Amino acid sequence: MDHMKRQLSFNQLSEENTKKLRNELLDELRVSSIENLSNELFHEIFDYLDGIDIYEAFSNINYRFQQLLTSSPVLYKIELIYISSTERFMFICQQIKHQIYSINFQIPAHINELLTSFIIDSSLNRLQSLVIEDIQSDTILSFIIALKCLPRLFSLDIRTMHIMGNLNDIYRSIFALPTLKYNKLHLYGNECSISIPLATGKQFSTIEYLEIAHYYTFDELSDLISYTPKLRRLNLSHINQDDSTIETMSPINLENLTSISMYTNYINFDEFETFIQNIYSELKTLHVTFSYQDITFLDAYRWEELILQYLSQLKKFSLKYYENRHSKYSGERTQFNSLFWIERKLIMNMEINEYKILYLVSPYRKRWYEYKNCTVDYLESTQLTINYVFDGEPADCLLMYIKSILNRVQIYHLDIQRKISVDRLMQIIHLLPDLITLKINSLSFYRSFFKEEFPTTCSIEHASKIKKVYIENMQTIEEIYFLLYICPHMEFLNLQCLHGTTIELFLRDMLNKINKDMRLLCIYVSKADDNMIKRLSTMIDNEKLLSNYTIHRELNN
């Protein structure tokens, strides 16, 4: 197993993949002589498996494995997704208690029984991470207080739907944990208030990464993070809807804080600006998501002023703004393509979902149409992604979304994530005169609802400007013929070899159909190899399909 596999933690594997891997490994062990395998190899194998499963599978084999299971290098990661017997779980935990590295309690039906039966003491001296789901209010406080005896507990993640009326005591107990570095408290729908006093010197917490995922006011936030002077990363969500304290928010001095992530439905841009102005730190990372309907969030000049004046050390930035379908806008175009944003390689993209439009400002990432030595034009990089095409219903909502976006920005790149009918596609292209690239999932040729015949002269004219096309899941050759017809000046075509057709037949057909402007043809073939490249090159030369070309393989392309 290579270094990357050794580093892969149990929590990164899905339950299904873990079971599959476990079965494969156990089958391999049965085939080979188990006694000839080294302890070091077993240590690597155990890193993929649940701690309880390891103990039950290996503890009764022989004396060697009994010793191996209790040897110091073995650390157990326990993920309780199901449990056959509470008593059996408690017995096994008692045997391996000093070797437990992490526990993830994910059994709502048994969580209180488990937590009240599970004895927490200093013998859990290697326990570093705890995740607890759906803990009840009458159990949580005593459980957190008991964690104080753990000498290496670095991470605590609590998520519950139960109402917590004792948030003050809960946070006091969390801040008192002596070694805690990461804390997340996710209370779904909990609107209880917090009245915790400002911290004094002796009450400071060791927490460096704090996630607050419940309702709070900004005054309450100020009080909470007064306990965390070592805080480096702050993740916030679910601010109170009726928070009138933002204007009187006390300044917060956090000299170690370098990263803030925030999601909220309830504050406007002015309130967010006040929050940033009251955070005294050298932020290097800011990720924010807003659903509150305040179009000022898309004011590039306001963001530019805020960053230059209060966030001069900022290195990483992303903005997500969700606009609902009923919003109307008639103001100026957004200016996220000014020199300020281009220098930072930050661009605006949009996504259309069923009920909302997402405006996303984030670092530019290489796209499918950027091949080797391709120069990026940030001024013409704005992309619209359509995740819901409203097939089988009138296009009014979809077209309204697109028109709303066009009031703010020009669109140069279109990515349609769902199968779409040709007339619906042409309805969209009809609205987009500046398209350079088109990426679609697949095309259908049935007619959907529309008020006028498509394609129109205008939509054909717009499509003729498209230079680069990518079709991900082509089903019929007619889809390619249609795209070649509406995009006569296409320079780059990216597609997959049609299922059931040999690559020779497919390529011959493509080369006979492509236009004189075509410069790059990229075809995905599942079994591509170097011999295939030689055969295709011979075919092209013998049949004189091309006179001046190069052909090579990159993976299966």
From TrEMBL:
This is F-box domain-containing protein. The lineage of its organism: Eukaryota, Metazoa, Spiralia, Gnathifera, Rotifera. It comes from Rotaria magnacalcarata. Gene3D superfamilies: Ribonuclease Inhibitor. InterPro entries: F-box_dom, LRR_dom_sf. Residues 31-78 form the F-box domain. PROSITE patterns: FBOX.
